[in-house]
Amino acid sequence: MENKTNFGGLGLSEKTLRAVENAGYEKPSPIQSRAIPVILARRDLFGCAQTGTGKTAAFALPIMQMLEEGGNYPRPKQFRALILTPTRELAEQIDSNIALFGRSMDLSHCKIYGGVSQNPQVKLLANGVDILVATPGRLLDLFSQRKLEFGGVEFLVLDEADRMLDMGFINDIRKICRELPKKRQSLLFSATLSKEVEALAKNIVDNPEKISVSPDKPTVDKIAQKVAFVNLENKFDLLEHMMKARLEKSADSLALIFCRTKHGANKLAKRLCRIGIEADAIHGNKSQSARKNALERFKRRESHILVATDIAARGIDVKDMSLVVNYDLPEDPETYVHRIGRTARAEADGESVSFCTSDDAPLFKSVEKFIKKRIDVMADNPFHSEAAQNAATLKTALAAKLSGGGQKKRDAEKNYARTKGSCQKKSDGGEYYGGSVPSKKIRQQAKPDAKNAGQNAKGATKGAKPNGKRGGEKIGGMLKRKMKAAGMTSLPDRTRGGKKKASFWQKLRDSLRK
């Protein structure tokens, strides 16, 4: 029986094992030990594993080994393995890992994505490459320009398939798959498992081997997750307190802070720089060169804090980055998983702190429900907010909801009693007092008056309904006759200047007659 506790028992060649040793890997992760033998057996694969568990090596190592053993060479404008990623940062990360693994292999690789000039990318593709790492948008753009061809693809990898669905790449993926050869090996990897991802997998992989590593625990167990309940106006003060205490303890510590908006990320980075903490911002509005420079400065520890939006939630892989701060909670709980997955990479430890205000309570509850785990409250928080904690605690919120419903019921009963008491009869005269009178009594009092009015009207029929159409016409006719006898003009006959105003059609008829 093969030993899968080390890379030697997974079926990898001696050259691939040397590449693994040079990369610093000691033992395979669960997704690697289960996926590598399946891929080497030429089976399609649908893999689901937590963020930061080594999915890149799980598909890159066996594919690179099979490409080298195949002995084929790519034709011009073609590539033998296609790896699709949702973001530029993830494409950079995968390409760097392939370069690390392939130092002793005779394989060419290339990365293409938007935001930069396409000329260098087209030049590399002109002679063909063994492995192409690409984002869907730029790939289809170059295909429409006939700068590349899909006919030589032997392996297809969809990495972070759930993120691709979130970013709206589903139609682009379908277009790409229609152009690919039907005879190929397809691999699909995702950090979260959902019905949408499973539906996508049915159209891409053929009779796949399904591998799920802890799908019920979407967050890595080695991440110490904490929540800091704070008022909105104290969020930056709390962040300043945390960062200064952390830098005093360890001057080389790194922290990744997530904001919800691009403007918020820029603003937060500038505020941190003003108080003497080096920070850079990275988001979708930044050029690719600016994003790459910020990430390189962060890796070299020239800046200790990187403020990012969710566009960078996948693809940032920095060694020894032990803290992720959710300055703004994400609207999608799955995004929370990928945010905190930037720490505790490669079996290391990590910590995440999420700021939660009273308005963020629904988002925080959805996160706890999704990860199926209670997040501990941050102990060292000088700006703790009891109101935010009460709003985010499910038991307190439920009790408040129930008590609120009971209060509404009691208020309704009081209003009913007040209305009923204000309409009670006097014991002596039988009259009503108070603010309201029952509608039934109003109708009983109104009937005799309406009946007398109908009897006094000329030509009124006996028993005519006062509230009906006929009764209303008779009462109106009597009123007109009384007004006429008194020398008054009825309302419809009153016009400005005492004369009846002629209509447009009357004027038109008069002009035609003349």
In summary, what is this structure?
This protein has 514 residues and is an alpha/beta fold.
Characterise the protein shown here.
The radius of gyration is 38 Å and the shape is extended. The protein is built from 19 helices and 14 strands. The N and C termini lie far apart (115 Å). The protein has 514 residues and is of the alpha/beta class. Helix 2 (30-40) runs parallel beside helix 3 and helix 13 packs across helix 14 (361-371). A 7-stranded parallel beta sheet has the order 3-4-2-5-6-1-7, with helices on both faces. Strands 10-11-9-12-13-8-14 form a 7-stranded parallel beta sheet.
SSE class: alpha/beta
* Biggest pleated-sheet summary: 7 strands, parallel
Spatial extent as radius of gyration: 38 Å
Instruction: Give the number of DSSP strands.
Output: 14
> What is the overall shape?
extended
Question: Which structural traits does this protein have?
Answer:
seven-stranded parallel sheet; 45% helix
Provide the fold topology.
Layout: H1 14-22, H2 30-40, E1 45-48, H3 55-70, E2 79-84, H4 88-101, E3 109-112, H5 119-125, E4 129-134, H6 136-144, E5 155-158, H7 161-166, H8 170-179, E6 185-190, H9 195-204, E7 209-212, E8 223-229, H10 235-249, E9 255-258, H11 262-274, E10 279-282, H12 288-299, E11 305-308, E12 323-326, H13 333-340, E13 350-356, H14 361-371, E14 376-377, H15 386-392, H16 394-421, H17 439-456, H18 469-485, H19 504-513
Parallel strand pairs: 1-6, 1-7, 2-4, 2-5, 3-4, 5-6, 8-13, 8-14, 9-11, 9-12, 10-11, 12-13
